[in-house]
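Pair request: fold both.
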Amino acid sequence: MRKVATNVKELVSMVERGELRLPEMQRRYVWRAARVRDLLDSLYRGYPSGSVLVWETDQQQPTRDLQVEQGTSPFEGHKLLLDGQQRLTSLSAILRGQPIKVRGRKRDIDVLFNLEHPEGLSDFTEVDSDEEPTSGATDNGDEPPDDEDEEDGEDALMERLNRLTFVVSSNRLAQLPNWVSVTKVFKTTSDSELLQAAGVTSFADPRYELYAGRLRKLRAIADYPYTMHVLPRDLSYEEVAEIFVRVNSLGVKLRGSDLALAQITARWPNSLKLLEDFQDECEEKWMTLDLGLLVRSMVVFATDQSRFERVRNTHIDKLKAGWEKAKNGPRFAINFLRTNIGIEDESLLSSPLFFIAIAYLSQKRDEQLSADEEKKLRYWLYVANARGRYSRGSTETLLDADLATLRDGGTVDKLIETVRQQFGRLDFDAADFTGKGAYSPLFSLVFLSLKTNGAKDWQTGLGLSLTHSGRYHYIQYHHIYPKSLLKERYDTREINEIANMAFISGGTNRRISNKEPVDYLPGVITQRGEGALTIQGIPIEPELWKLENYRVFLERRRKFLADTVNRFAESVLA
């Protein structure tokens, strides 16, 4: 295996010229903008950033473009990128100012550079996963990062941002003189325009040397050295797929589904396009299904179990037959979740594995459910989802146990009993809500039960839905007692409890901002009546809207939420 010394500028040029393509086994681009930000931060500081692995081949192979604009080249398809796609796509987008094509849509990634960043190490937000989360639900009650909290003060937010060297661009920051677009730096040959925009108009300005030096250091990212490992031409596609799997297994860079997909595409050319076409169909009709979920679905219908390691020893004809069933099952699951369960968005599922379980049951029953079985399946989904059936422990083991139940003729009653055995009970009490926040599996059941009860936005009167058009109408949760008013007196988990949340639109949330409940709730009653509060379980006694009575408020509302979700789940069995 040859080693070739190269750098970022040359690798980006190879992408632009079309000399680097992707083999079919490669997944799509999945990095979030925050991950691109963190890559730039590492390169700016000269930290290690791995290497690049390519395969030179004269064989005709199924290939795909990187998800940035690429030209044509007589060497097209001769160098296939096995490791480094996410980094090179990101760097090509930033340095060339090219949008990234994601499922047919172009998405700009713009990162800002802080000319006033602190010397030495600055604050850094590491992103550990390449994948988009399929659901925010976990069982620890954790909240999103603080910089996503619109209730925090603007001064505090700016103080945090100014400790960073790179940030994902926003309109507000882009207007500030010390923040400059990284893409603009690379596309502008002279510093004078950038320095003047930053307020530096003469050489005598003490900031001139500092800013100019930092711009030179930023542009030096183009010269950042990479080692390109080149696999020999005489390898077969199957051997290269094996190398791809082993390299990524050792580095823990890819999920099990990505490694399984590499093994599938090595034996089944153009299979990736079948998966992606079906993924696009699902996204167009309802929601985004992760490609890994579709691979797992194929494995389930081919082998009656969910473990990806079975792919290696499964005949390709069996996988092809499994895929035909795997398309019908998820279609049923999507329709059932949307119309029978009321789940409009995948974020309301504590685990995407519920898709698999419902899809598998539908095909075992030839998509013919009795009225009784349909009710019990709804009940199982509500309770198992809220309990986090597939969100803790060995999730594959738990899913395989449920698949085995259905494969062997077991009923939905048996699935319900399994949940009872796992958690000790099926109902919920007030204690279950203590310390549980928006990332708890309980969150979606609260949303669904309040929505069914008729809860509406406090200003527009719109019912709860995750599909409203326009960001000001999009339903989000609102801290009834603002975090900024509580953080000096109460623990974070206590502040961020579901019991301190109401569902209202984004526009209403912004208007309330960080006002104390005693100041804004009377206005809600005046405009919408007491029922606007009581239907969401918010006590109407003004005494309980005062900060000193926050814990009494939580106790009252936890009990309301427990009673509400119990009634809601049990009502489907009536």
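--- second member of the pair ---
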Amino acid sequence: MVWNNKLFTNTIPFHNIHLLSALKSVLSQPSLYLMKNIRNFCIIAHIDHGKSTIADRLLEITNTISGKELKEQTLDDMDLERERGITIKSHAIQMEYSLDGKNYIINLIDTPGHVDFSYEVSRSIAACEGALLIVDAAQGIQAQTISNLYLALESNLEIIPVMNKMDLASAMPEEVSEQIVDLIGCAPEDIIKASGKTGLGIAEILEAVVKKVPAPEGDASKPLQAIIFDSVYNSFRGIMAYYKVINGEIKEGDRVKFVATKKEYFADEIGILKLKPQKRPSIKAGDVGYIISGIKQAKEVKVGDTITHVANPCEVAIRGFEDVKPMVFAGLYPLDNDDYEDLREAMEKLQLNDAALTYELESSAALGFGFRCGFLGMLHLEIIQERLEREFNVSVITTVPNVSYKARLTNGDDIIVNNPSDMPETIRIDTMKEPYINAQIITKSEYTGAIMNLAISKRGILKNQVYLTTDRVELTFELPLSEIVFDFYDKLKSVSKGYASFDYHPIGYRDSNLVKLDILLNGDLVDALSALIYRENAFTLGRKICEKLKELIPRQQFTIAIQAAVGAKIIARETIKSHRKDVTAKCYGGDITRKRKLLEKQKKGKKKMRQIGNVEVPQKAFLAVLKLD
């Protein structure tokens, strides 16, 4: 449509001239707001299969970003994501595309591939009708590919298979094509052969998205129903919530209500998600957008909540995606107790950007006030620790990670134990249960023996072994979750030379012989180093922690005893000798009793010093315990 300012200014009265700009913005894009022309899709794949590179090419071919703005991993805006070459957080962006004379709005959500960030994937899937399943032509189907595919299929998403990295000399198109056909039951010709590096197949991907992904179902005339699938904190504007409108329409200035929190706000600004947010007068059913309403408190926005109008509310809230289930628990404490308030604010803001992070207040005799946090895995813990230091300038000490256990007491009560300090006395416990997982490992057949040995050493039970091809095998184990939270993934990569992929899901709690391992310094308990552990592993871990602390705690004027204990029984001990002063140097000649008197005097002084002296455990000691083999 051609906009003719002269025509309109001649026909519209002068006092209505201020309506021109609003009218112009609506009329300039008439076809883009038809729901049948909207497509919402996400990209799912195993880690390092080229999701972000494909997303870059899609943005480039649709002219969503200019050549000047384009860079590798365009949607990954964290330094941490670029350094590690991984996607940590889902990123939404809107593209415009024309096909057969029709204009389409395409909302793309790029998702992480690592098993620790599968919660981000489940949130993205809730806002989409289709998914690109990307498989590396050189690596084939991997464990997380299957896991993410099942998430998409459970939500009835249309799957578009893409074989990426076709430009590599090591690509195996025929073999990988067979794997994809076996996995999702499509025809070989349905698989799009692509290369994010060279741009091969990118136009075909966009065409498939338009033709195969169904338009969103919804009714713009119904009361407003929008699901929040993400949120970010902006230090100037407050909290920006990202949502998908299922039914109805949201306009700038509307008074809206967040159903779960029962809070009401004015929609100060709404818009769409381009590379930078772009303001719009309204967002209708089927589309994805953002809302800024001056919210400052993190707890007022819940991912999965429903937005509706105050005047004309919807009857039922939208059923969101799966709830987050923390797998690993650890304490985070500020290096300096004076920084506690800064850490609390940082945790609130970080939870907005990462809804999978859960935390509650905790205090420790050794470390002061801090937080007991729940993470999806060890990589998630590492990322949170780094983000706190980089984005909020808060340095933290991390305690020994553990998982959530169940204890049945002698009086019949069941309690959840997330922290070793919550463990009841041994005489009050009837049985202890620990969480088990079903682990899927896909690897080359030559590494099967080494991986079996690793899993069995971690108390694993082999449940199934299936050959996917002549040299690729899928192993299924049942493992205690506590055995994989430390270093299982790293060791798996080592024994398989990087060829094994790993995915897991919880299967419930089972009885286990667990004990609480305490670390004592001169008889004083260091609760931050306590751990719940399988009884047979207690002696080995206790001895290693004592040896490591002996290396790292500096010598004092008095002897320091480092002990590992299970209940009242000491199972390991190391001693840090005191600095020695030659008190008998001034004695020359004379009776031996003069020397003895001086030595006895020094001995009493050392004993008194040991009673009143404090042993400071350096931060590197806590970090070293995390890295113990």
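Observation on the second member. The longest helix spans residues 592-612.
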